[in-house]
Protein backbone atom coordinates (compact mmCIF):
# COMPACT_ATOMS: atom_id res chain seq x y z
CA UNK A 1 0.00 0.00 0.00
CA UNK A 2 1.23 3.49 -0.86
CA UNK A 3 1.28 5.92 2.07
CA UNK A 4 0.75 9.57 1.18
CA UNK A 5 2.81 12.18 3.05
CA UNK A 6 2.11 15.85 2.43
CA UNK A 7 4.49 17.34 5.00
CA UNK A 8 8.25 17.26 5.44
CA UNK A 9 7.80 15.86 8.95
CA UNK A 10 5.58 13.04 7.68
CA UNK A 11 7.90 11.92 4.88
CA UNK A 12 10.90 12.12 7.21
CA UNK A 13 9.07 9.91 9.70
CA UNK A 14 8.40 7.32 6.97
CA UNK A 15 12.05 7.34 5.90
CA UNK A 16 13.30 7.22 9.50
CA UNK A 17 11.12 4.18 10.12
CA UNK A 18 12.49 2.53 6.94
CA UNK A 19 16.08 3.27 7.94
CA UNK A 20 15.31 1.99 11.43
CA UNK A 21 14.44 -1.38 9.83
CA UNK A 22 17.73 -1.28 7.93
CA UNK A 23 15.96 -0.58 4.63
CA UNK A 24 17.61 1.14 1.68
CA UNK A 25 15.50 4.04 0.40
CA UNK A 26 15.17 5.32 -3.19
CA UNK A 27 13.68 8.66 -4.19
CA UNK A 28 12.03 9.17 -7.57
CA UNK A 29 11.47 12.93 -7.98
CA UNK A 30 8.62 13.81 -10.37
CA UNK A 31 6.23 16.60 -11.21
CA UNK A 32 3.32 14.19 -11.45
CA UNK A 33 1.13 13.53 -14.52
CA UNK A 34 2.73 10.12 -14.26
CA UNK A 35 3.12 7.87 -17.30
CA UNK A 36 5.00 4.73 -18.35
CA UNK A 37 8.31 6.63 -18.25
CA UNK A 38 7.86 7.41 -14.56
CA UNK A 39 6.71 3.86 -13.85
CA UNK A 40 9.98 2.58 -15.32
CA UNK A 41 11.79 4.80 -12.79
CA UNK A 42 9.69 3.33 -9.97
CA UNK A 43 10.37 -0.21 -11.23
CA UNK A 44 14.12 0.47 -11.24
CA UNK A 45 13.89 2.06 -7.80
CA UNK A 46 12.26 -1.11 -6.50
CA UNK A 47 15.17 -3.13 -7.88
CA UNK A 48 17.86 -1.01 -6.21
CA UNK A 49 16.14 -0.21 -2.90
CA UNK A 50 13.75 -1.68 -0.32
CA UNK A 51 11.53 1.37 0.10
CA UNK A 52 10.53 3.67 -2.77
CA UNK A 53 9.50 7.27 -2.18
CA UNK A 54 8.03 9.15 -5.17
CA UNK A 55 7.73 12.91 -4.87
CA UNK A 56 5.09 14.79 -6.86
CA UNK A 57 5.68 18.52 -6.89
CA UNK A 58 5.19 20.91 -9.81
CA UNK A 59 8.20 23.06 -9.07
CA UNK A 60 7.51 26.75 -9.79
CA UNK A 61 11.25 27.55 -9.57
CA UNK A 62 12.00 25.76 -12.85
CA UNK A 63 9.36 27.45 -15.03
CA UNK A 64 9.98 30.74 -16.82
CA UNK A 65 7.36 33.51 -16.64
CA UNK A 66 5.98 32.63 -20.10
CA UNK A 67 6.10 28.85 -19.60
CA UNK A 68 3.35 26.35 -18.82
CA UNK A 69 3.42 26.27 -14.99
CA UNK A 70 -0.28 27.14 -14.68
CA UNK A 71 -1.45 24.60 -17.24
CA UNK A 72 1.07 21.84 -16.42
CA UNK A 73 -1.07 18.68 -16.06
CA UNK A 74 -1.96 17.85 -12.45
CA UNK A 75 -3.96 14.80 -11.35
CA UNK A 76 -2.92 13.61 -7.92
CA UNK A 77 -5.73 11.04 -7.72
CA UNK A 78 -4.60 9.36 -10.95
CA UNK A 79 -0.94 9.56 -9.84
CA UNK A 80 -1.81 7.96 -6.50
CA UNK A 81 -3.63 5.09 -8.21
CA UNK A 82 -0.71 4.49 -10.61
CA UNK A 83 1.83 4.52 -7.79
CA UNK A 84 -0.25 2.03 -5.85
CA UNK A 85 -0.20 -0.33 -8.83
CA UNK A 86 3.51 0.27 -9.39
CA UNK A 87 4.30 -0.68 -5.79
CA UNK A 88 5.66 2.67 -4.57
CA UNK A 89 5.78 2.77 -0.79
CA UNK A 90 5.46 6.49 -0.10
CA UNK A 91 4.01 9.32 -2.17
CA UNK A 92 5.42 12.65 -1.03
CA UNK A 93 3.05 15.34 -2.31
CA UNK A 94 3.78 18.62 -0.52
CA UNK A 95 2.14 21.87 -1.53
CA UNK A 96 4.25 24.93 -2.33
CA UNK A 97 3.80 26.41 1.15
CA UNK A 98 5.27 23.25 2.66
CA UNK A 99 8.28 22.95 0.37
CA UNK A 100 9.20 26.55 -0.44
CA UNK A 101 10.05 28.78 2.51
CA UNK A 102 7.54 31.54 3.06
CA UNK A 103 9.48 34.80 3.16
CA UNK A 104 12.53 33.08 1.62
CA UNK A 105 15.28 35.26 0.17
CA UNK A 106 15.51 33.46 -3.16
CA UNK A 107 18.54 31.29 -2.38
CA UNK A 108 19.26 28.97 -5.32
CA UNK A 109 21.72 26.31 -6.39
CA UNK A 110 23.64 27.74 -9.39
CA UNK A 111 23.87 25.20 -12.21
CA UNK A 112 26.96 26.92 -13.67
CA UNK A 113 27.96 27.21 -17.34
CA UNK A 114 26.34 23.95 -18.49
CA UNK A 115 23.11 25.28 -17.03
CA UNK A 116 23.23 28.12 -19.55
CA UNK A 117 23.53 26.11 -22.78
CA UNK A 118 20.98 24.12 -24.83
CA UNK A 119 17.86 23.83 -22.61
CA UNK A 120 19.33 26.47 -20.31
CA UNK A 121 19.78 28.96 -23.16
CA UNK A 122 16.12 28.58 -24.17
CA UNK A 123 14.92 28.43 -20.54
CA UNK A 124 17.10 30.84 -18.50
CA UNK A 125 17.26 29.87 -14.82
CA UNK A 126 15.55 26.52 -15.45
CA UNK A 127 18.37 24.37 -14.15
CA UNK A 128 18.98 26.56 -11.10
CA UNK A 129 15.32 25.90 -10.25
CA UNK A 130 15.63 22.16 -10.92
CA UNK A 131 18.82 21.73 -8.88
CA UNK A 132 17.47 23.81 -6.00
CA UNK A 133 14.39 21.63 -5.63
CA UNK A 134 16.26 18.38 -6.24
CA UNK A 135 18.80 19.25 -3.54
CA UNK A 136 15.98 20.21 -1.23
CA UNK A 137 14.15 16.92 -1.87
CA UNK A 138 17.37 15.01 -1.23
CA UNK A 139 17.80 16.84 2.09
CA UNK A 140 14.18 16.33 3.06
CA UNK A 141 13.92 12.65 2.14
CA UNK A 142 17.53 11.51 2.69
CA UNK A 143 17.48 8.52 0.31
CA UNK A 144 20.43 6.26 -0.48
CA UNK A 145 19.52 6.33 -4.21
CA UNK A 146 17.92 8.95 -6.47
CA UNK A 147 16.39 7.72 -9.73
CA UNK A 148 16.15 9.94 -12.83
CA UNK A 149 15.26 9.43 -16.50
CA UNK A 150 17.77 9.80 -19.34
CA UNK A 151 15.01 11.58 -21.33
CA UNK A 152 16.05 14.81 -19.55
CA UNK A 153 19.71 14.31 -20.39
CA UNK A 154 21.00 17.75 -19.41
CA UNK A 155 19.10 17.56 -16.12
CA UNK A 156 20.63 14.16 -15.36
CA UNK A 157 24.09 15.47 -16.21
CA UNK A 158 23.69 18.50 -13.93
CA UNK A 159 22.16 16.50 -11.07
CA UNK A 160 25.14 14.12 -11.34
CA UNK A 161 27.57 17.05 -11.23
CA UNK A 162 25.74 18.61 -8.28
CA UNK A 163 25.87 15.34 -6.33
CA UNK A 164 29.58 14.96 -7.09
CA UNK A 165 30.64 18.59 -6.58
CA UNK A 166 28.58 19.20 -3.43
CA UNK A 167 29.31 15.71 -2.02
CA UNK A 168 25.65 14.85 -1.62
CA UNK A 169 25.55 11.37 -0.03
CA UNK A 170 23.30 9.68 -2.59
CA UNK A 171 23.85 7.35 -5.55
CA UNK A 172 22.40 8.45 -8.90
CA UNK A 173 20.54 5.81 -10.89
CA UNK A 174 19.66 6.68 -14.50
CA UNK A 175 16.93 4.86 -16.44
CA UNK A 176 16.64 4.78 -20.24
CA UNK A 177 13.88 6.62 -22.08
CA UNK A 178 10.52 4.89 -22.46
CA UNK A 179 9.00 5.42 -25.92
CA UNK A 180 5.61 5.17 -27.57
CA UNK A 181 5.24 2.55 -30.32
CA UNK A 182 6.16 5.12 -32.98
CA UNK A 183 9.31 6.17 -31.11
CA UNK A 184 8.07 9.36 -29.42
CA UNK A 185 9.61 9.67 -25.97
CA UNK A 186 7.06 9.50 -23.15
CA UNK A 187 6.54 12.91 -21.59
CA UNK A 188 3.85 14.55 -19.49
CA UNK A 189 3.78 17.34 -22.10
CA UNK A 190 2.72 14.88 -24.86
CA UNK A 191 -0.77 15.41 -23.41
CA UNK A 192 -0.75 18.89 -25.01
CA UNK A 193 -0.43 17.46 -28.55
CA UNK A 194 -3.50 17.14 -30.77
CA UNK A 195 -3.63 14.40 -33.43
CA UNK A 196 -1.85 16.56 -36.02
CA UNK A 197 0.84 17.63 -33.54
CA UNK A 198 1.26 14.04 -32.44
CA UNK A 199 2.00 13.02 -36.06
CA UNK A 200 4.47 15.90 -36.49
CA UNK A 201 6.18 15.06 -33.20
CA UNK A 202 7.35 11.77 -34.70
CA UNK A 203 10.00 13.84 -36.54
CA UNK A 204 11.91 14.27 -33.25
CA UNK A 205 12.82 10.61 -32.66
CA UNK A 206 13.14 10.19 -36.45
CA UNK A 207 15.85 12.89 -36.43
CA UNK A 208 17.72 10.97 -33.72
CA UNK A 209 17.41 7.74 -35.70
CA UNK A 210 18.74 9.52 -38.80
CA UNK A 211 21.67 10.85 -36.77
CA UNK A 212 22.39 7.37 -35.43
CA UNK A 213 22.38 5.88 -38.94
CA UNK A 214 24.94 8.48 -40.06
CA UNK A 215 27.27 8.02 -37.05
CA UNK A 216 29.90 6.16 -39.09
CA UNK A 217 30.32 9.30 -41.27
CA UNK A 218 31.10 11.72 -38.43
CA UNK A 219 29.43 14.50 -36.46
CA UNK A 220 28.70 16.86 -39.36
CA UNK A 221 27.00 14.05 -41.32
CA UNK A 222 24.92 13.15 -38.28
CA UNK A 223 23.76 16.73 -37.82
CA UNK A 224 22.91 17.02 -41.54
CA UNK A 225 20.94 13.74 -41.43
CA UNK A 226 18.98 14.84 -38.37
CA UNK A 227 18.28 18.27 -39.85
CA UNK A 228 17.06 16.55 -43.03
CA UNK A 229 14.59 14.44 -41.03
CA UNK A 230 13.25 17.53 -39.26
CA UNK A 231 13.15 19.72 -42.38
CA UNK A 232 10.53 17.46 -43.93
CA UNK A 233 8.01 18.28 -41.18
CA UNK A 234 6.10 21.56 -41.54
CA UNK A 235 5.23 22.78 -38.10
CA UNK A 236 8.16 21.28 -36.16
CA UNK A 237 10.42 24.24 -35.26
CA UNK A 238 13.90 23.28 -34.18
CA UNK A 239 15.19 24.91 -30.98
CA UNK A 240 18.54 23.11 -31.11
CA UNK A 241 20.26 20.05 -32.42
CA UNK A 242 23.60 19.27 -30.78
CA UNK A 243 26.14 16.50 -30.42
CA UNK A 244 27.98 16.58 -27.09
CA UNK A 245 30.55 14.59 -25.16
CA UNK A 246 28.43 12.92 -22.44
CA UNK A 247 31.28 13.34 -19.92
CA UNK A 248 31.38 17.15 -20.25
CA UNK A 249 28.22 18.13 -22.11
CA UNK A 250 30.46 20.21 -24.41
CA UNK A 251 29.86 20.07 -28.19
CA UNK A 252 32.14 17.77 -30.16
CA UNK A 253 33.59 18.52 -33.59
CA UNK A 254 33.68 16.46 -36.75
CA UNK A 255 36.92 14.68 -35.82
CA UNK A 256 35.51 13.37 -32.52
CA UNK A 257 35.62 9.64 -31.91
CA UNK A 258 33.95 7.73 -29.08
CA UNK A 259 30.62 7.88 -27.29
CA UNK A 260 28.52 10.95 -27.98
CA UNK A 261 25.05 12.19 -27.12
CA UNK A 262 22.77 13.68 -29.76
CA UNK A 263 20.25 16.13 -28.33
CA UNK A 264 17.25 17.64 -30.03
CA UNK A 265 14.60 20.13 -28.91
CA UNK A 266 11.76 21.23 -31.16
CA UNK A 267 8.44 22.98 -30.85
CA UNK A 268 5.33 21.42 -32.34
CA UNK A 269 2.53 23.93 -32.12
CA UNK A 270 2.96 25.35 -28.62
CA UNK A 271 4.51 22.15 -27.25
CA UNK A 272 8.24 21.79 -26.59
CA UNK A 273 9.63 18.33 -27.06
CA UNK A 274 13.13 17.23 -26.07
CA UNK A 275 14.82 13.93 -26.78
CA UNK A 276 18.30 12.43 -27.00
CA UNK A 277 20.19 9.36 -28.06
CA UNK A 278 23.68 7.95 -27.44
CA UNK A 279 25.76 7.15 -30.50
CA UNK A 280 29.23 5.72 -31.01
CA UNK A 281 31.52 7.49 -33.45
CA UNK A 282 34.09 4.87 -34.44
O1 LIG B 1 12.18 15.91 -14.20
C1 LIG B 1 11.31 16.45 -13.50
O2 LIG B 1 10.15 16.04 -13.47
C2 LIG B 1 11.70 17.66 -12.65
O3 LIG B 1 12.62 18.45 -13.31
C3 LIG B 1 12.18 17.28 -11.25
C4 LIG B 1 13.46 16.45 -11.31
C5 LIG B 1 11.11 16.48 -10.52
C6 LIG B 1 12.49 18.53 -10.44
O4 LIG B 1 11.36 19.31 -10.27
UniProtKB/TrEMBL annotation:
UniProt-annotated location(s)? Cytoplasm
Its pathway? Answer: Cofactor biosynthesis; (R)-pantothenate biosynthesis; (R)-pantothenate from (R)-pantoate and beta-alanine: step 1/1
One cellular-component annotation, GO: cytosol
List residues binding (R)-pantoate: 62, 155
Reaction(s) catalysed by this chain's protein: (R)-pantoate + beta-alanine + ATP = (R)-pantothenate + AMP + diphosphate + H(+)
Name where it mostly resides: cytoplasm
The UniProt record gives the binding positions of ATP as: 31-38, 149-152, 178, 186-189
What residues bind beta-alanine, as annotated?
62
Alphabetized UniProt keyword annotations: ATP-binding, Cytoplasm, Ligase, Nucleotide-binding, Pantothenate biosynthesis
Q: Which residues form the active site?
A: 38 (proton donor)
Q: How does it assemble?
A: Homodimer.
Q: Function, please?
A: Catalyzes the condensation of pantoate with beta-alanine in an ATP-dependent reaction via a pantoyl-adenylate intermediate.
What name does this protein carry? Pantothenate synthetase
Please state the gene responsible for encoding this protein. panC
